[in-house]
Amino acid sequence: MSPLLMLAIAFVVLTLIGVPLFVAVGLTTALALFLIDIPYTLLAQTGYGSLTPFPLLTIPLFVLAGRLMEVGGMATRMISIATNLVGAYRGSMGLVTVFACMLFAALSGSGPATTAAIGSVTVPAMRRDGYDVPFAAAITASAGALGSLIPPSNLLIIYGLVSETSIPRLFLAGVLPGILITLLLMVTSYIIARRRNYGGGGEPFAWSPFLKAAWDGKWSIGAPVLILGGIYGGAFTPTEAAGVAVFYALFVGAFVYRELTITKLIEALRFTALLTGILILLTPTLAFGQLTAFFDVPSAVQQGITSITENPFLVLLLIGVFYIFIGTFMESLAQIVLFTAVFLPLVTSLGIDPVFFGIFTVITCEIGFLTPPLGANLTVAARISGISMERISVAVLPFILAYIIGLLILIAFPDIALLLPNWLYGEAK
Fold this sequence. Notes:
Layout: H1 3-16, H2 21-35, H3 41-50, H4 58-71, H5 74-86, H6 92-108, H7 111-128, H8 133-144, H9 154-163, H10 167-173, H11 175-196, H12 207-216, H13 218-232, H14 238-256, H15 262-276, H16 282-294, H17 297-306, H18 312-326, H19 332-349, H20 354-369, H21 376-385, H22 389-395, H23 397-412, H24 415-425
Helix pairs in contact: 1-2, 2-16, 3-16, 4-7, 4-14, 4-15, 5-6, 5-12, 6-7, 6-8, 6-11, 7-8, 7-21, 8-21, 8-22, 9-19, 9-20, 10-24, 11-23, 13-14, 16-19, 17-19, 18-20, 19-20, 20-23
């Protein structure tokens, strides 16, 4: 039996019997080190090195900022702005949910965090408006995944570190695809709600309530302007922007809206610690990624796929199918770390921009947020709505289709993702 096959079997077996992913990857990596007679100190050295990059601080800081903005009242005001902007007609509350998730995605950097922040308000509102609860939870879960695409995005930060790609370029590349996916989700939500006669109560759009809500929520809208404007205006780096976001959220929540208490602050810190604890995956997955070079996995994959086709569109389709399948049972962070090293050399050899491939990768990860058995966003939505994950899994299928359509559009027209970064920074050389 070849060493590579042994490693594959070991990883699959450990995963299937329920061993935590970071342990499964770690044990598989240790087995690989044994097979090729490399000192086990590689794991320790990689573990230390994986957690030292300064940009890695961006992830817990953005998660904390997003949570502080949620408990400090900024998320509620964003929902109010969205509600008054859309008005009241068939399906309007679903559109509000998607739009509010898009706004909050520009603050949180995390799909599950966006789902929790917006869904805790909009799912009960949709239930009161006559929506089927699984459908309401499905809207929230699918729209919450935008938190991983619209900048700032934790997954884009990880991809940037692993692939050595510019994080500001990645952030900017996520804007137009994020808007595209938002529109597709809105269309999907509206069509289903219209057919099922959901919603339709309340007041139609009027300028006076909208302007009042916009004025009350000006500090909320100012957050993404400050964060992204500061990054692209050259005032601070993404990591510094995350620190600014935390202080902004503390100031607005405590002194402007006065809804941020010590208890809520402690809860936000606890939430951040739990959510960013997943970074423990970096140690074994980066070590395992380094070992793929010893087994010449990238070259084998490149030869295997190019023997089938060298058409960039078809190659991306094959990788996309693989990513979506893997995302059903693997954490997105581990997926990016493990497979970027395998597939990035292949796609760059075919002339595909690494920035575009980062956006492509993150969208496939977003689909993974919506597919059981792992489905991080489905788990959060199930907890918020109080229904089973199985019921949400069925209701979310039309929204998964919307993501797939968006992915196909981007594969066919990659300039949608590259337009803004190439315009601001020039084409990558």
